[in-house]
Specification:
361 residues, alpha/beta, six-stranded parallel β-sheet, 14 helices
Length: 361
């Protein structure tokens, strides 16, 4: 069986751009690598490579990551991609569109129209509709996102939930905060402005009212226009916040050095509803406790992490019983390994490929 993952980015992007590669790693490079180790024919290419005349369309499953808005640069030749998808299916292959973010909300369309203009926003929607019309199924990392897709009339009726894979190596569980609590947040800051503002300006002062605390961010290189929406023109250090540019080694080191990982969300945003729990998975695998707002995908981990509408309250609960908190981390690690390991997720992708191949008969 030949499975090809077509992702939106290449694996050797500059370090400053590495946070953009999360979906490519979790839903491309890592499962494909595991399939190769298991003896399967699996490879990763880019969406742009599908436009090449020499792309080999003889395959069993194409996992096409939902193209980002830079596909507009190829709008005049989009028929090349559409014809390629038709050819794959006519030759017996199956096409799955993998969706990590829901880009069909009024909120997203308005933001895109504001940034690129209404004509380009509409053109992007037309391109996506044409691509989705040529797929056999849609995959999503969470049940909540799958429900959003199911409610859209343009989506395929066949939907599979394939969760994100855990990326960091498993480390011993630890919860033994010292005199100063070391709190970590990691991710793409630009996608979490409102949540970080609440963490820095509301939750952090509440935590510090009873417990000395430092906050470390691992994200894109700062400052940025978005980080100024959180900190203003003031250096983050003024708020007792340090930061480092993201990379896998930097993240692993930050996880090893922290006591707790805080993952707040803007619960009122439609874009938050389908968010994956992948950051909580990485933290648990690294042996660190997570406190987070109770998004649907995070409730799957509710026995192992602290879920509360108040991050400060969740931190206080964790600190009140360190032994119980440590036990939750340890149980969570076993759960994560069984359900989200590269082997488990690669097997799920292969199950989908076999199911779709069987259905065509």
């Amino acid at each position: 069986m030949r499975v090809v993952f077509a992702v939106n980015a290449v694996p050797h992007a500059p370090q400053a751009q590495m946070t953009h590669l999360a979906s490519a790693r979790y839903r491309g490079f890592i499962p494909a690598g595991q399939m190769q180790r298991d003896g399967q024919r699996a490879e990763v290419t880019t969406v742009i490579d599908l436009f090449r005349p020499d792309f080999d369309t003889k395959l069993d499953l194409l996992v096409l990551h939902q193209p980002k808005h830079d596909i507009l640069l190829l709008a005049n030749v989009i028929s090349v991609l559409l014809d390629k998808l038709d050819k794959i299916r006519s030759e017996g292959g199956r096409v799955v569109i993998d969706v990590s973010d829901f880009k069909f909300t009024a909120e997203f369309q308005e933001a895109m129209a504001k940034a690129l203009g209404p004509d380009k926003a509409q053109a992007y929607r037309v391109i996506l509709d044409a691509i989705f019309a040529r797929c056999d199924a849609v995959t999503a990392p969470t049940g909540a996102l799958a429900e959003l897709l199911r409610d859209d009339e343009e989506m395929a009726t066949v939907l599979f939930v394939i969760e994100d894979v855990v990326e960091v190596a498993r480390q011993p569980a630890k919860f033994a905060p010292g005199p100063e609590l070391r709190l970590l947040w990691f991710g793409f800051l630009s996608a979490h402005i409102a949540a970080l503002k609440q963490l820095v300006h509301d939750d952090l002062p509440k935590i510090r009212a009873t417990t000395p605390c430092q906050l470390h961010l691992v994200c894109e290189k700062l400052p940025t226009a978005e980080s100024r929406q959180v900190f203003g023109e003031t250096d983050p250090a003024t708020f007792g916040v340090t930061h480092a540019a993201w990379s896998v080694p930097v993240l692993e080191a930050a996880l090893a050095a922290c006591d707790l990982v805080a993952l707040p969300f803007d619960a009122g945003s439609m874009m938050s509803k389908g968010k994956s729990n992948n950051r909580a998975l990485q933290a648990l695998a690294a042996g660190r406790y997570v406190v987070a707002h109770p998004l649907e995908s995070y409730r799957t981990l509710g026995d192992f992490i602290g879920l509360d509408t108040s991050i400060a309250t969740a931190v206080a609960t964790a600190l009140a019983d360190p032994a119980a908190t440590l036990q939750r981390i340890q149980a969570g690690q076993d759960f994560v390994e069984a359900r989200y390991s590269p082997a488990a997720i690669a097997a799920r992708w292969l199950d989908v490929a076999r199911e779709l191949q069987a259905a065509k008969g």
